[in-house]
Structures are given as C-alpha cells and as structure tokens.
Amino acid sequence: MADVTIESILQENRSFKPDAAFVETAQINSLAAYEELYSKAQADPQTFWAELATQELDWFQHWDQVLDWQPPFAKWFVNGKINISYNCLDRHLTTWRKNKAALIWEGEPGDSRTLTYAQLYREVCQFANVLKQLGVKKGDLVGVYMPMIPEAAIAMLACARIGAAHSVVFGGFSAEALRDRLIDAQAKLVITADGGWRKDAIVPLKEQVDKALANQAVPSVENVLVVKRTQQDIAMEPGRDHWWHELQKTASADCPAEPMDSEDMLFVLYTSGSTGKPKGVVHTTGGYNLYTHVTTKWVFDLQDTDVYWCTADVGWITGHSYIVYGPLSNGATTLMYEGAPRASNPGCFWDVIEKYGVTIFYTAPTAIRAFIKMGEHLPKARNLSSLRLLGTVGEPINPEAWMWYYRVIGGDRCPIVDTWWQTETGGHMITSLPGAIPMKPGSATRPFPGILADIVDLEGNPVPANQGGYLVVRHPWPGMMRTVYGDAERFRRTYWEHIPPKDGQYLYFAGDGARKDEDGYFWVMGRVDDVISVSGHRLGTMEIESALVSHPAVAEAAVVGKPDALKGEEIVAFITLDSEAKASETLAKELKQHVVSEIGALARPGEIRFSDALPKTRSGKIMRRLLRSLASGEEVSGDTSTLEDRSVLDKLRQGN
Ligand code: PRX
Q: Which InterPro entries does the record associate with it (predicted)?
C-alpha cells in the first residue's frame, strides 16, 4: 500500500435529475427526504436500524440489544431470533403474494420456469428435508457449486431454513479453486448439477466436483447432490452421489424454519484479497437480512408490480444479496437468467426484458461496455419500454458508458443507480436513491442512510473536497461482514489496521481510493491494494502469482492489471523462468492454461512477459507500480530510488 499515490483525473460535471414520472411514484421522492433520513440515521444509527428491523422483518424473538460493538467485532440485534428463509417465504404465504411469481427463470436454450411464492416455499421445504435426511444439521457448512438455475436459490434458502451455512462457489472456478474453498470451509455436503449452459456450451460442473473431491482430498464432504440440468452423462459415485430429483420426489414438504440467533452464520463467501489465499467472508443472519431487505426496497424503489432482473451470478455477493435474499424478503418477483450474450444470440438480454416486461435491470459496467461494442441496433430492435430503473455494480462506470446506458437502454427516462459496495459490506453502501438523488455519470453519488462513509488519508484525517484518499466507513452497519472464516486476526489486519483508529473511532477500510466532490458525491477510483478487477471480478495478484509459480518452468511471477476497454483491466504476468526453461510462445500459452486450471478462466492472463529479473526494492518487494506502467506502455514515473538494480528496468523496457 505504501506504493500508491491517489490521484483523481476524472472531471465530470453533468448532472441528471430523476424523471418526473419516476419521482411521482417513488418511495423516497426528494433530496430533502433523503437528507432527512440520512440525518436521522446519523444522529442515532441504532434507533434508525431498530425501527426498520421492527417494521420490515418478522422475528421469532425480539432482541435485547441493537448493537454490541467490540471493535472490530459487531453483533446486531443481540439475542434476537429470526430465520431469513421464513422472511423470504413463509410470511408472504399469508398475504395475496402467495400466488405471485417469486422466481422467473429463463434457461439459455430457451426453456423457462416460474415459481410462485407457494411453489418456491414447497420446493425449499422439501429440499431442506433432503438435506436433513443426509445428515446436515444446524451449524454445518454446505458447498454450492451450481449453474444459474432455480435450484441454486432453493439450495441457499433450504440451508438457511435449517440453520446450515452455505458457501457458494462461482461455477466458473476450477476444480482446484473449488477444492481449496471446500477444504477451508470444511463443507459437509456439496450441491451441484450435471452441468449448466453458458454461451452455447455445457459447463461440466459435476466433473469439476469429482476432480476436487478425488482421492479424499476434502475429507469433510460426505455427500454430493446433483441436479439434472443438461442431461449429459456423468459419473455418480455410489454412496456419495445422489440425484436431487430422486430425493426431492419423496421428501416431505413440512419443514418449519429453524429459529436462528441473529448472529448465527448465514454464509461464507470467498473473495480475493491482496495477500495469501482467498478469504472466507462471514455474514450472519439478522443484520444481513435487514440490510439487504432495506437496500433492495429503497435503492430499487421496489413496487409490487415490478419484474426485477439482476444479471449477476449467484456465485458472487450480488447474486446472494440482490437475486435471492433482498428481493424475496421484499416479496418481489426476481428474474434469473442462466446464460450470457453469445454469438448465436447477442441480443438475448433484450429478448428477456421484452419477454417478461422487466422493469428494473441491474448489471455491471463490463457488460454495458460489451453491449456498446455489440451495437445499439440489438436493443433498438426490441421493445424495452417496460424498463423504469437501471442499475450498475462492480466497478467504476465510465461516464460515456453511463450515457449510453441512460440513452439507449433507459430511453432517457430511467434513473440509473450506480451502487458501490463489496462482498464484505453485504449490501449497497454508496448509491443514489433513484427518486431522490440527482445523478452524475460515473459517481456512485451519496451514502445510504446509516452509512457514515468518508474519505481520509493514511492517518485517518478527512481530506478536503476533491482530493483523493481512502474510502472508509465510520460506524458499523447491520450488513457488514463479521469476520474472516477461521481467521479473526486477518479480519482485523485487513480491514481495521491499515488506517489506525482515530480518536477512539474505528474506521472500516474498504481498500478503494476515492474522492468526494463539493456536493458530497463520492467518486470511486478503484482498488489501492494488489487486487485486479477483471470484468468486475476481484482477483488477488498473489493468487495468480502462486498459480504461475506452481508451474515447474516458473521461478518467479509478478502480476499486474493493465487498463482494458472492455474488461476494465487485463492481467499481465511478468515471469522469470527456471534456469532449465526457455521462453517461447508455446510456454506462454501453457502458462495461461495452467492458471485457468488452477483458478478458472476468469483469471487467464491476457499477456505473459518473460524477463531475466523483476524490479524489486532493496528489501525484496516487487515494485508493482513500475510493472503497471510498463504493462500499459506508460513512461515509468515517480520515485525509483528504492529500486535495487536499476538495469532491470531498462531490460524490461527493451522487452527482455
Ligand atoms: O473496488 C470496488 C468495486 O468492486 C469492489 C468490490 O468487489 P466485490 O467484493 O467482488 O463486490 C462486487 C459487487 C458488490 C469494490 O471494492 N466496486 C463495486 N461497485 C462499484 C465499485 N467501484 C466503483 N463503483 C461501483 N459502483
């Protein structure tokens, strides 16, 4: 982190007020209303959250204390008893929503399913009983490695129902990455599918699970449940592997939701950090339920007639919070799409919007840049008039991409909510409220009520308007992560020590650089640590370097990101070879493939550069700043005085 200067170069002065027709029906419908809510929450965060918890959620038992804050460890709604599956399902069955569509699903080959709240409830209860039959108990951990099919949501809700924590691993991760995560989580059971459809091909999920579990590599896993999705042949290991549909058929639909302690673990989700292996971000039950519920309700201005579509994968936090828990807790209709735009149907997203009359569309800047490239004739050929609100998440959105999204997809009438948040924060933190906060393209705008966000220097002092600094949060919030699974010290070190407590107040350090303008709008500039964001997915340089070094030809590797018009960043790997090995195109290809099999296709380096040595400080630390400049073809500027061997830089410039 010492290797970082934060400089803000983006100058963007456009501002857009939400459309009058939108404001007319919006829940929070003026800047004054937002500011009033914000001030109220700021003055007394505990009362603010407690009132919402009472109004918005069903509790089996009231809490004794709203917040127990022993920095950096927070407990929300202490001794409250609640179940998130109950809040997402059971409580809607006694209302008119019983027969409302809870989940609309569209498969890539064009098949589809709709589950009402009553139907989803039944599936979840049955599957919860299947889990129980296989010995899963409250407190156990279940691995989920699934395509984007309704069973992914059913699996998560069933775990939550019986008090087992889930750990969803993105289906694009390799067998090795899956194995590491299952080992760390000590998963007792894995839920998967024979495969899933993506870009006209089958992702062989079960095959990856078999590889991950081969030779008893994950001794904690006793059973594997397999959904039949693609119908291709797969191996089933007798005694260990079971077909979902066979057990589901005979399972009872009677499964009352387990009263969980508000602070019981709901899930672990792995995310990349700047050092070491991925960390298991732990979220608990009551606070997470409340936070995802309220942010979904206000940020998406959810109305009962909405058809809401978030294009994320359930393997990421966005899928957890804003496909499954937040929307269902609100009794919304949430749409789930299995595939991705592909050569055979580049306009598939617009088809889905037209087919279902989607009203709220939430996607990522990397997808928007891809839409721009594919051409506006595709959305223009469909009727997108049902849309009333757009959202983005995952990385800063370039103002020009924002303008395109606003004009071409939103028809100049839909507000855009640019939502800044993280796996760690559980839900939206800085975002506009669409009927209240004027938008500035490229800015995530203002903090959500109750979120005391600020920009500070390394000592924790607030920096003046428009000066770059570190994005921090000053007060705990209900959706915050509670710890790193099995490593509380790492939690403290990563998020609470980079910037020391100031006047007794602990500051949550998000790892992002940002500035605040004269109107209090936040402009997030990106990570200040060694995390690369490829298509909005976080990848730790350390993980990719470890994968490269595990290849016998590699002596040392340093990985940096280089700006990429489509993906945000592309991975460039600088490699020094073992004395026996020779640099070649073939070896470069082999190393790229090696990373794919160690981590997954999302981590494939775009470029491999061989070099005799890497630029290091005298203490042996690789100077990534220099490599970043070299990778993007910029002049190396700034201080190079700590460089141990200056000739390395010249050699690298000459490309050897
Ligand atoms: O750098 C920020 C960026 O994504 C990081 C969080 O990544 P992850 O935990 O994978 O969660 C992604 C989905 C919530 C942040 O530290 N980021 C996320 N949203 C935005 C963003 N950067 C700028 N603007 C955003 N709206």
A: Ac_CoA_lig, ACAS_N, AMP-bd_C, AMP-bd_C_sf, AMP-binding_CS, AMP-dep_synth/lig_dom, ANL_N_sf
